[in-house]
């Protein structure tokens, strides 16, 4: 193709696509980076099975309406969940929702809230690593 | 039966019983049109919930329009259509009552004096109902031609008046039906059928009048002009800006942080005291941890309280602003519970709604904080 116009068009389309695809939130990290950071903080390596047990288990230490992560994220984190308010929650597994675990502040905020709601305490760095490892494996 | 082009008082030959034409076609159309529109407005007003409001308003406005047209016809129509034909003097009413109580049998072809009083009362009531209804629409729901002029104070007072007028009208209609039944029995004629056919049996002793020519064309012109005038007035009045509505657009911080677990509730749905209390206790937020950094808390609190229910003049703001302080949630406010009391519990707990807090599942305009009854759609199918 010799005409410069198609390539100009293609460049414009590419530029437009980049703009559209750019996430609203700043993406400063990835599941893998977070996983290794939490592992480094814990000084131990993550374990899928521990992560799954924590996520799908029923707990008693937290608030009575939220005994489990599955209360809102369901038994299958690749599927959409639902908050207690009826609002849909997009899938939590990065395999089903590439936006997950890409923003440190957001991940920290929700680990902070949800671990407190479900367990009645903060999750440890190792627990966070376990959870991300299991969720990323789905 | 061949249509007979007789003028008012001529009898129609060929009938088993000779009849005389009393009610012209317009009076009859008006009467039955009024029956239909008033029935629609009454049924939806007394018995249906807010999702039927649109039909209620259409019924009421059409009834009002019919009355306006009837007034024109009452001045320009045929003999028995004219108000002058049946407008009773106090004396006529008393005479009528006196002869009736003595068992008198003389009959009025048009309305008798008592019936005439009823006609005027019903017409006046329907007009006042249409007006107070428009006032309620403007004052309470803050839409329509009167919205810029009225606030919820006037609106709720007008709604009260509207309800009382409606009860009086219902009572008058009951009296009217009783009167028709009684008069039909007393004068041995079927008055209801007369209002369908327009004819009454001709009797010796009927009070006869000279025919009066209907000014159909002038009447039609007047009605068209009035209709056009009202449409223009409505458009002009409704086009004005309405003060006191929630207009602030929600900053992104609030949509993000307060819209993560549920729709971001409009600040006009709760009073400032509730927002303060909610924002102070985010770590134990209706059974969940919704904690935020102190800067974000301060910024969100400031915005929510500057646009709280006290700062606007809408029905939900007015209703939800009232209530005990410990009723923190919108759904815990007494007004919310009253408004939704007739809805089945399962509607809220089953899919697709899931929770009473999910206002947007039923209220299409939930983000705006208006909660207009015209924007309610209940999900058709629910499942556990």
Kindly describe this structure.
Chain A: Keywords: Heme, Iron, Metal-binding, Signal. The complex is a heterodimer of chains A (138) and B (384). By secondary structure, chain A is mostly helical. Chain A has a single domain (28-137), classed as Cytochrome Bc1 Complex, Chain D, domain 2 (Orthogonal Bundle). In chain A, 52% of the residues lie in helices and 3% in strands. Chain A has six helices and two strands; from the N terminus they run ααααββαα. Chain A has a two-stranded antiparallel sheet with strand order 1-2. In chain A, a hairpin with a 5-residue loop joins strand 1 (81-82) and strand 2. Chain A is globular and about 35 Å long. The termini of chain A are far apart. Chain B has 384 residues and is an all-alpha fold. Chain B folds into two domains: 19-202 and 213-239, Transmembrane di-heme cytochromes, Chain C (Fumarate Reductase Cytochrome B subunit, Up-down Bundle); 252-368, no CATH class. Chain B has 14 helices and three strands. A three-stranded antiparallel β-sheet of chain B has the order 1-2-3. In chain B, helix 2 packs antiparallel against helix 8 (216-238). Residues 1-15 of chain B have low confidence and may be disordered. Chain A binds chain B through residues 63-66, 82-87, 109, 112-114, 116-117, and chain B through 261-263, 283-284, 287-292, 352-355, 357-358, 361.
């Amino acid at each position: 193709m010799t005409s410069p116009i198609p390539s100009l068009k293609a460049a414009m389309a590419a530029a437009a696509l980049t703009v559209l695809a750019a996430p609203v939130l700043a993406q400063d990290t990835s599941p893998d980076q977070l996983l290794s950071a939490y592992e480094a903080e814990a000084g131990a390596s993550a374990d899928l099975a521990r992560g799954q047990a924590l996520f799908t288990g029923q707990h008693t230490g937290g608030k009575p309406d939220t005994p489990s992560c599955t209360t809102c994220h369901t038994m299958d984190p690749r599927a959409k969940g639902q908050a207690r308010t009826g609002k849909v929650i997009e899938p939590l597994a990065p395999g089903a929702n590439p936006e997950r675990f890409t923003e440190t502040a957001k991940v920290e905020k929700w680990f902070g809230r949800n671990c407190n709601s479900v367990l009645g305490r903060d999750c440890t760095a190792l627990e966070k690593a376990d959870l991300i490892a299991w969720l990323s494996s789905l | 039966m061949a249509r007979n082009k007789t003028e008012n008082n001529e009898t129609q030959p060929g009938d088993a019983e000779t009849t005389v034409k009393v009610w012209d076609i317009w009076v009859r159309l008006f009467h039955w049109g009024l029956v239909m529109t008033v029935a629609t407005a009454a049924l939806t007003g007394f018995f249906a919930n807010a999702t039927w409001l649109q039909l209620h308003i259409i019924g009421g406005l059409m009834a009002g329009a019919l009355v306006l047209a009837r007034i024109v016809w009452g001045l320009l129509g045929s003999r028995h259509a004219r108000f002058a034909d049946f407008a009773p003097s106090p004396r006529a009413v008393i005479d009528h009552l006196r002869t009736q109580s003595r068992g008198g049998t003389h009959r009025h072809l048009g309305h008798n004096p008592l019936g005439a009083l009823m006609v005027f009362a019903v017409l006046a009531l329907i007009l006042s109902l249409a007006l107070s209804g428009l006032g309620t629409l403007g004052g309470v729901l803050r839409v329509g031609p009167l919205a810029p002029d009225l606030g919820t104070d006037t609106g709720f007072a007008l709604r009260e008046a509207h309800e009382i007028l409606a009860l009086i009208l219902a009572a008058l209609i009951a009296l009217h039906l009783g009167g028709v039944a009684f008069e039909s029995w007393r004068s041995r004629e079927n008055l209801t059928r007369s209002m369908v056919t327009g004819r009454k049996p001709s009797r010796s002793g009927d009070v006869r009048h000279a025919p009066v020519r209907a000014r159909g064309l002038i009447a039609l012109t007047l009605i068209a002009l009035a209709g056009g005038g009202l449409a223009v007035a409505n458009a002009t009045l409704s086009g004005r800006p309405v003060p006191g509505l929630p207009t602030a657009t929600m900053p992104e911080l609030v949509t993000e942080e307060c819209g993560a677990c549920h729709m971001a509730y409009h600040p006009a749905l709760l009073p400032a005291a509730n927002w303060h209390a909610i924002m102070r206790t985010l770590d134990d937020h209706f059974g969940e941890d919704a904690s935020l950094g102190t800067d974000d808390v301060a910024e969100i609190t400031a915005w929510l309280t500057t646009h709280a229910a006290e700062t606007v003049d809408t029905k939900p703001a007015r209703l939800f602003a009232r209530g005990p302080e410990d009723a923190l949630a919108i759904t815990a406010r007494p007004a919310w519970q009253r408004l939704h009391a007739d809805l089945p519990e399962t509607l809220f707990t089953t899919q697709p709604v899931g929770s009473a807090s999910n206002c947007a599942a039923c209220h299409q305009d939930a983000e705006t904080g208006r909660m207009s009854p015209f924007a309610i759609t209940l999900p058709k199918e629910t499942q556990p």
